[in-house]
Design brief:
alpha/beta; Rossmann fold; 6-stranded parallel beta sheet; 3-stranded parallel beta sheet; 11 strands; about 40% helix; about 15% strand
């Protein structure tokens, strides 16, 4: 985004770096304690693709896990792995008492039904909230791991002191990865939530009345200055590759940055918090497992 002209409004930058660092430090402390007590937290990531962006993401998770003191097994089944092989691996990881968190990285090979595969993940190990059962429990207010990206949005707003109760929030996107679960998380915090999508008529009519706009669609530059009021907070979840190899969001940062009250950067906003929360969820799952073992021993 270009530098602001003298007197020109500039949105506050809602960086996720500081929050992610704090989460990583907390995770490292907890992982050390668990390991010392005999339960080293372990994450398993199942991969069945030759998509380089997916492999880059998985490598970043593994690197972050190692830095935080977690074990991380990347199980690469290859881009031609059949449905049965993937399901059998998930089942084996469910039964492995040394594994506390499971992620199935997408995309999966053609012909493999992603929903069926993630439905096989034990909810107790479903640290990215991919199993529909986890989403159902989230909607019902029962204990469950929320999808990390959705939780990262709320955590980032909390970190920057942005009130949610009683606020009008518009969520753009209805995926089960971000849009739907973040709507449930916001409802649980007493926000009034509207979910918009590709069939929404007159999108600007909704976004212009919102106190907070969360954009998770996967379309670069979808939200422009005309969609936003001058006091709105905008969370850009999009990560789209640009022609020059950089990442851009779903928000036109140039226009929205001159109009909104606050805006998350891309990269450096929701992304680092998402990765940090995946690791924290794994530690939480390991802690529950350790507590269950202690109860059985007693």
């Amino acid at each position: 985004m270009r530098a602001a002209a003298p007197g020109e409004r500039v949105a506050a930058r809602l960086s996720g770096s500081e929050l992610a660092a704090a989460l990583r430090a907390r995770t490292a402390d907890a992982a050390s304690e668990l390991a010392a007590a005999g339960t080293p937290p372990k994450l398993a990531v199942v991969v069945a693709t030759d998509d380089e962006s997916s492999h880059w993401y998985v490598r970043s998770i593994a690197k972050a896990a190692t830095k935080a003191g977690l074990d991380c097994d990347v199980v690469d089944l290859g881009p031609d792995a059949p449905d049965q092989a993937i399901r059998e691996k998930v089942a084996a990881l469910n039964d492995d008492v040394g594994v506390h968190g499971i992620i199935v990285q997408t995309p999966l090979p053609p012909g493999v039904a992603t929903r069926d595969v993630v439905s096989a993940i034990d909810p107790a190990k479903d640290v990215d909230g991919a199993n529909p059962a986890s989403l159902g429990r989230l909607a019902a207010g029962a204990p469950a791991f929320a999808p990390a990206t959705a939780e990262a949005v709320v955590a980032l707003l909390d970190h920057h002191g942005i009130a949610l109760a009683g606020r009008d929030v518009v969520v753009l996107g209805r995926s089960t990865v971000v849009g739907v679960p973040v709507a449930h998380l916001l409802l649980a915090r007493d926000a009034s939530v509207t979910v918009c999508h590709s069939r929404t008529a007159d999108l600007a009519a909704h976004t212009q009345r919102a106190d907070i706009v969360i954009v998770a669609v996967g379309r670069p530059g979808l939200v422009t200055g005309e969609h936003i009021t001058s006091d709105a907070v905008v969370v850009d979840v999009g990560t789209n590759p640009a022609d020059d190899g950089s990442l851009v969001g779903d928000v036109d940062a140039e226009q929205v940055g001159r109009r909104a009250a606050a805006l998350t950067p891309v990269p450096g906003g929701v992304g680092p918090v998402t990765t940090a929360l995946l690791l924290w969820h794994t530690v939480e799952a390991a802690r529950v497992h350790a507590g269950r073992l202690a109860g059985q021993a007693g």
